[in-house]
Amino acid sequence: MLINLFTNVFIENFYIFLFGAVGIIIALLAYNFIRTRHLKTYRDMLYNDALSSVKKSTYLEQHFTDILVDFDRDVAMYYINIDNFKNYNDLFGFHIANNILAEFGKRLKSVVDHDRVFRVHSDRFIVLNALEEDHDRTFSKKLLKKLKEPYLMEDQDIVLTVSIGRYDIKDTNPKFYDAILRSELALDEAKGIGKDQMVVYASALKDEHHNAFDMFHLLKDAIKNDSFYLEFQPIVTAKDEKIVGFESLIRIEDKHRLLFASDLIYYAERFNMIEDIDRLVARKTFEAYRLLKENKVDFEFLSMNISAREVRSLTFVDYLKSLLARYNIEASNIVIEFTETLDPEGLADESKFIESLRNLGFKVAIDDFGSGYSSMLRLSRNTLDRIKIDKMFVNDILNSASNQALVKAMVNLALAFELDVIVEGVESKDAFEFMRDLNIKYIQGYYFYRPMKIEAICKIMTK
Ligand code: C2E
Ligand code: CA
Ligand code: CA
Description:
Blueprint: H1 2-12, H2 14-47, E1 55-56, H3 57-71, E2 75-82, H4 85-111, E3 117-121, E4 124-130, H5 139-148, E5 151-153, E6 156-158, E7 162-169, H6 176-192, E8 198-200, H7 203-208, H8 210-225, E9 228-237, E10 243-252, H9 261-270, H10 274-294, E11 301-305, H11 316-327, E12 334-339, H12 346-360, E13 363-369, H13 375-380, E14 386-389, H14 391-394, H15 401-416, E15 420-423, H16 429-437, E16 442-443, H17 454-462
Parallel strand pairs: 1-3, 7-8, 10-11, 11-12, 12-13, 13-14, 14-15, 15-16
Antiparallel strand pairs: 2-4, 2-7, 3-4, 5-6, 9-10, 9-16
Helix pairs in contact: 4-5, 10-11
This protein binds ligand C2E and calcium ion (CA) (2 copies).
Ligand C2E binds near residues 262, 305, 368, 424 and 451.
């Protein structure tokens, strides 16, 4: 009876059911199509380098074993760096420098299989090629010859040289980081002995660069064991010498020796561990913010450092956004400091990056202002909150007329663009008074406070 009723309803409404079913199928297909396209676009962005049209080295990192297996024999890794690329940038401008990089990528792809060329960043590339018996005389020679042919750019022939570090991967279970590190050490060696040549990694190099290997494992373990911590250096106002903020500075727990933050960051960038570390620092800075507030410490801002590499990251800003929600912090209380990028095409990325940080409400400071070469350009875009004058300009300020002139010029520029100025490395009363008289707003330096652990900060602030 019931079955009959359903059958009748079905027959009477057959076309409606049919159209409905077809509609659902079309919708599902369309959804699937759009989703696949989105995924593809996302993957392309993640793995393909738009400028040089080769893959990014993150792709190699993630598919290293598979790529090696595909070769089915020993592989040579070439770490290639254009000699003095910054000069081309300064001489010919961004546009031509970018075109050189694009052409450089094309040439690399013309000598090896497309999928075996990777851009690390800026003018650093990696090429993988099967290790043949006569490798030095065949492939290496061809590669060098191709890269050194003149680059015709807007009617001028530009000739460049390259330094190459080669590592012949013969290990039974090769690791991406070991291979990169070894080829990079060979590259350093090539640059150290005068550039414009190729050096093949040999184990003697490893001994010479023991420090790098050591740092590599130290950093890797520290990330795994979370043995980084932060110190905080108070920042005072010049006007009334009152603490208004703190800069977080990374430290590592190591019983055996003293580690400098600048070394730590230098190696973390070299070994591509910096993104993990920047996230860790961000999380710990936000945690500290909460702790200070819970301890009723009165302050205006926490300033944290990130690597200029984050400018290219697709996810770092999202991560910061998620931290704001997790720790319930007003973004305007956090200052993000980073140094000027030196990449030719980096400026556009950097502007976008700064814009997205500021859209979330963060304050952005250019660290070590004046040490990069495009500072003026950056100011004219008027998209910053503050600049930080590096301690190298402050050293010996009272005896150095040129440092005085430089600092004055930087301060005047910043004030003209209505940016706050903070000066670091103030170690004496005289230096402090000099800066204060220039109308600099914030002062940081050993004259007032050294960096300290969070507990010490709570103590001095709640006395
Ligand atoms: P920076 O961002 O320019 O940091 C300021 C450095 O100057 C700190 O050294 C600080 O301890 C030191 N300093 C402050 N006042 C004085 C002073 O009066 N005299 C002298 N001689 N030095 C002073 P630190 O902590 O060794 O950091 C060195 C660099 O390492 C930093 O330079 C920054 O580039 C990098 N760094 C530190 N922490 C982080 C971090 O968490 N993330 C990233 N990406 N980089 C960091
Ligand atoms: Ca800084
Ligand atoms: Ca500095």
